[in-house]
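Project standup — Tuesday

K.O.: blocked on the structure for the chain from last sprint. Re-posting the sequence here as requested.
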Amino acid sequence: MNRRRLAIAAIAAVCILGLCKPAVIRTDRDTRLAVLFRWQSGDIQFVNSVTGRPVFIGFRLGRRFQAFSVLTDETTEAYYTNGTYDMNTRASQETTDQLRFCSMKGISLRLGFYTYSIKDGCLEVTLLWTLW
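H.V.: unblocked you, prediction finished:
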């Protein structure tokens, strides 16, 4: 009976570890630990300091940060891409275990249960493990 309980506990732990995505969220002034889950989504919003136009980047959390989409105006997209590729097509193919953004005008991050807003600084989110 004890082996069966141990096996069930081990299976439950593996499932939880596979679903949980611990991350470190850093700003210029603060560092925090966050617990995220695979099915959660997030977005980053900021104003491009050159064009003065808003940028919205959405993404999902799977094994890593993935399924990115970018919403902005044509001028700002051309600023980032120099008009040589479609930003959404390229962004949707990207996966990463770290996000890093800096902005003089401010950044707003919504990630799962968490929301951060900073002004004139940088924001970094790093997944601590990316099993499966």
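K.O.: great, moving the ticket to review. The radius of gyration is 18 Å. Residues 2-19 form the longest helix (18 residues).
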